[in-house]
Amino acid sequence: MDAAGWNARYAASELVWSATPNQYVEARLASLPPGRAVDLGAGEGRNALWLAGLGWQASAVDFSDAGLAKGAAIAERLGVEIDWVCADVLSWAPVEPVDLTLVAYLQFPLAERRRLVANACAMTAPGGTLFWISHDSHNLPHGVGGPQDPSLLTTADELATLLDEGWDVIEASRVERQVTAADATRETAYDTLLIARAPAGG
Ligand SMILES: C[S@@+](CC[C@H](N)C(=O)[O-])C[C@H]1O[C@@H](n2cnc3c(N)ncnc32)[C@H](O)[C@@H]1O
User: Fold this and answer.
1) Taking the domain 3-197, which CATH number applies?
2) CA geometry: angle at 108 spanning 128 and 178, to 5°?
3) What is the pTM assigned to this prediction?
4) Does ligand 1 come within 6 angstroms of the Cβ of 130?
5) Domain parsing of the chain, residue ranges
């Protein structure tokens, strides 16, 4: 979907995503010491808002200004500072490398996924962390949610191969998320989770 499509989606409802961070963002990043973070494809900024609340100096980057505007309104209510940046995540770069680069549910075809991983690696400081979560290919036969086009889905093994040379894989796994269907039944969604550390500088 292009920026206009996302803008229409964000304009059509109160909050498209939850106001709380993704459960794996919270579980895996809570103990990381705060520094500079970038949330790529931040949408309404749920993960950037959570990081900023923990003391991170966060930038939220998305090409949908409607999504970012909703996040900015929440930030103002919460009294947290975030740098809201309307830009394409495939080409945008921060002024300085960051300690944490977060990518949540950006479902791109392989060529763009490669470019996104390369850009995310390039903006991460030596020793910094890349956190990636996305809808997993396992959803098609066994799970729910996310795109139904297999080319947009991921596996942890494939993602790990896209990392720049020298990166350390901390976790590359398929994880489960319980979701509630319209009829209130509980269903399982499968996500690809990749956490990796940039090579130390020097
Ligand atoms: C599924 S939403 C995820 C939002 C957020 N990461 C979250 O987990 O709540 C995907 C977001 O990526 C943004 N997006 C998609 N392609 C993009 C691109 N090339 N540049 C910037 N943002 C993009 C969309 O506008 C949308 O807000």
Assistant:
1) 3.40.50.150
2) 80
3) 0.95
4) no
5) 3-197
